[in-house]
Amino acid sequence: MLSLTPIANTFSISSLICKCKSSNDTHPHALDAGYIRRAAHIADKSAGFTSPHPNFGCVIATPTGDIAGEGYLYAQGTIPAEVQAVTSAGERCRGSTAYLNMEPGDCDGDSSALSALLQGGVKRVVIGMRHPLQHFRGNAVRELRSQGLQVDLLGEDLTSKVIEDAQKECLLVNAPLICRAASRVPFSVLKYAMTLDGKIAASTGHAWWISSKLSRNLVFELRGRSDAIIVGGNTVRRDNPRLTARHGGGHMPIRIVMSQSLDLPEEANLWDMSEVSTIVVTQRGARKSFQKLLASKGVEVVEFDILNPRDLMEYFHDRGYLSVFWECGGTLAASAISSGVIHKVYAFVAPKIIGGKNAPSPVGDLGMVEMSQALNLIDVCYKQIGPDMLVSGFLQPLPDMAPTIPSPEETFVVDPTVSPYESSIIFFYKTWDPYGALSNFSPHPIQMPDENGDNVTWLSIEHYYQAHKFVGVEDTFAQDCMERIKSAKSPEEAARIGRSMQKQRPDLIRPDWDNMKIDVMYRALKCKFSTYPHLSSMLLSTAGSVLVEASPHDLFWGGGRDGEGLNYLGRLLMKLRSVFLEESSSSSESPSLAV
């Protein structure tokens, strides 16, 4: 049975390994399955700290069956799990077996994960699942096998009941990425708390608190593992929630309010943007004056011609969200279920009875009149949380691991997540896209001189760019922000620090930033593509194509959802490409010196 609670709470490697060793004759793949589950377990540690990213874990086991080293990928741009595990294992790595929950895959030119396995002397690699994204799928497997390593894939080279159970763990850890690869909606979870008689509030609407503190703490953790949290207008009016993760730092999910009429209070906790941003989605033309009020508070308003859960999820899929957490009332929950966008359900059942004919239930009318029409959860799991019972399961199975990708002539040119208008346009956005190395977030450190002329290493362009918002500002807090950005573990964290400080303390931003930011970005881009020959080659290979950063919400650096953005990042890359092409042409035309 597939566990639906966080893996870290459900798995003990030591006990499993002992059982596997003692029963190896009965289950020949039990030891492999145990180590793969361990790799999935440690991969899950990154969930909720830097998002959205795939979750990678690696375990190195010696021929005698002992763990020599392990590691997990904190975020793209940080040390790969395989490098950590091989380094930890040291000399014990030679002749060992590496267990990976998922096939390695990274943006252009980053082969450090595979190089670590080869140079460390690993003889065999066991992989829990192939990479879901088509442009990565099978590449690492082929490369490792071409170098003489034995590569076994769960479900292909290794098959048994215990292997099937281990592979389910691997699928669950990266369920959001699998959904992204196979469909145009994020992985969506519906959560609610109800009494034993199926009520989410009293007939008066009062709902504090149905579940126990332990259950609420788990909800904070689940929120933090998501990219966004969605509520309806009723929840905002009735509960005035904050929807923060409160899990000790790291990733904070975006808060989304879905309201057709925009009949929302002028003052609400969700309009406080100091910790995390809020997006309000509504019907086109709804309460324009209130939209202006929200905009003055920093709240983003997105209008839809027809507001429904399916179109909403497709929109946020295009914005790069992998997972969404629904904490809405019964009416919106029913609409989301009917639209087919909910994949999993978490139901906290409290041992309380409140009664009431008009007390609301967690899911509104689905149009069903017979019990035979009821929707059945699959892979159901039960877990006691204090006095409450958590019932969880899937409303629909995870998408097929091998989705059919339309040919370029049909629909997509670059990536199934992007629909270009012309074949001469190359879109890029996330680092896992085929042209992901064009992104500021790609894991390519750069060295740039500081004010004193000393070279300083930055982990990514995004680190450099965000920190330079505060250059030259004579304020200790501004200098502290620069140091925090410079030491951020990932580009996402650097961006989060820089953007939040720009919102909270605009007085700390250098006064010439609007005039200088394009120049700062161009210098960083030139350094990056000059430092890495394979990146400059990739950039030159795009000659003749228009480069567009496919960010649907950044209307300055990106192209916007409907091409309304200024696309300055794409423009700078094309400018740099022209410079490189001119230099390449001049170099090839220069006469050789006579000897």
Describe what this molecule looks like in 3D.
InterPro entries: CMP_dCMP_dom (IPR002125), Cytidine_deaminase-like (IPR016193), DHFR-like_dom_sf (IPR024072), Eubact_RibD (IPR004794), NADAR (IPR012816), RibD_C (IPR011549), RibDG_C (IPR002734), Riboflavin_Biosynth_HTPR (IPR050765). Keywords: Glycosidase, Hydrolase, Multifunctional enzyme, NADP, Oxidoreductase. The protein is of the alpha/beta class and 595 residues long. The chain folds into three domains: 167 residues, 3-Layer(aba) Sandwich (Cytidine Deaminase, domain 2), CATH 3.40.140; 211 residues, Dihydrofolate Reductase, subunit A; 162 residues, Tetracycline Repressor, domain 2, CATH 1.10.357.40. Helix content is 33%, strand content 16%. It has 18 helices and 18 strands. A nine-stranded mixed beta sheet has the order 10-9-8-7-11-6-12-14-13. A five-stranded mixed beta sheet has the order 2-1-3-4-5, sandwiched between helices. Strands 15-18 form a two-stranded parallel sheet. A hairpin with a 5-residue loop joins strand 1 and strand 2. The termini are far apart. The relative contact order is 0.10. The N terminus is likely disordered.
| Structural class computed from helices and strand pairing | alpha/beta
How is the largest sheet built, in terms of strand order?
Answer: 10-9-8-7-11-6-12-14-13
Strand fraction: 15-25%
The helix content, as a percent range, equals: 25-40%
